[in-house]
Design a protein that fits this description.
Rossmann fold; 323 residues; 42% helix; six-stranded parallel sheet; alpha/beta
Length: 323
């Protein structure tokens, strides 16, 4: 009888163990650290898609999930902020913008990292390949480096009589200058390049561009512009520079036009990747996804303020027209 009783106890113990473990796991609150570039933590509309994507996978903020935000617009501060998030033992890290991505990648080789990268994560040495990242980093590539020629083409089509554009951006100006000059020659335009190193140079950069009296302005992908869309839009209007950017927050804030990846969809996919990691997947086995959905947004109010008439051929291709 004692042996039978012991057997029953052992059997019940084995049967109950998964339920106990599940109960303990259910009680855990996962911590996701997010490192932003900006004066304060931005709250883009697309962040709602990120939260919803996680909620669809069972991770709900305020219940079993919490976000720890850290931010700065001074790149030199990112290593300390990344180290702080690592010290807080977050379950996953999310980083945007090159300085933030480099900082978290250098801060830990064990905590899973999901990046939203403007540049090429392979060239940056973050991953081995898109299909098999191989380390603790995975995420999404905006493919923004490939957009420059398209931005130039769209601006030229929108202002057919144009012959000279200013091109403004961060270090990507040097990387893309040759490619953009080739594209400009095919369009019959000349380019003036202006490189910025920090947000404090934005006002002076616009003043420099305006002095050359270009017909338009191409804003290259950089977090300096993405985190200050209203400021950029106001400066472009003040100096009467028809400008195109890749972030859709730009025309929403009063800029002329934007063509670039669907940010809401990318954030949704980022939520899917974070959820997989929280469920136990390894970043090394999660392919880095490239943007494959693009949107053209045009602000007709700004066009009128600049005295422009956007050709119908461009308007018909727009995914959204703000009027």
């Amino acid at each position: 009888m004692r042996l039978i009783g012991l057997a029953v106890i052992l059997t019940l113990s084995l049967l109950l163990t998964p339920f106990v473990a599940e109960t303990q796991q259910t009680g855990k609150v996962y911590k996701v650290g997010i490192l932003w570039f900006g004066r304060e933590p931005p709250v883009p509309p697309s962040l709602g898609a990120f939260r919803q994507s996680l909620a669809d996978s069972g991770y709900v903020e305020g219940k079993n999930l919490s976000f720890l935000h850290r931010w700065s617009e001074v790149p030199a501060r990112f290593p300390d902020l990344a180290a702080e998030l690592v010290h807080l033992k977050v379950d996953a890290l999310v980083a945007l913008a090159s300085p933030a991505i480099r900082a978290v990648a250098e801060a830990t080789t064990t905590i899973p990292i999901v990046i939203l990268s403007v540049g090429d994560p392979i060239d940056a040495g973050l991953i081995r390949s898109l299909s098999r990242p191989g380390g603790n980093v995975t995420g999404l590539s905006y493919r923004a480096m490939e957009l420059s020629a398209k931005l130039l083409e769209l601006l030229k089509e929108s202002i057919p009589t144009s012959s000279r554009f200013a091109v403004m951006g961060g270090t990507t100006v040097r990387l893309q200058r040759g490619e953009m000059e080739v594209a400009a020659r095919s369009l019959g335009t000349r380019l003036q390049f202006i490189e910025l190193t920090n947000p404090m140079e934005i006002d002076a950069a616009f003043e420099t561009a305006a002095k050359a009296r270009p017909d338009g302005l191409v804003l290259l992908p950089t977090v300096m512009f993405a985190s200050n869309p209203g400021r950029i839009a106001r400066l472009a209007l003040r100096y009467r520079l028809p400008a195109i950017f890749w972030g859709h927050q730009f025309p929403a804030a009063g800029g002329l036009m934007a063509y670039g990846p669907d940010g809401t969809y990318l954030w949704k996919r980022a939520g899917v990747l974070v959820a997989k990691i929280l469920k136990g997947a390894r970043p090394a086995d999660l392919p880095v996804e490239e943007a494959d959905r693009f949107r053209l947004v045009i602000n007709l109010n700004t066009a009128r303020a600049l005295g422009l008439t956007i050709p119908q051929s461009v308007l018909l291709r727009a995914d959204q027209v703000i009027d």
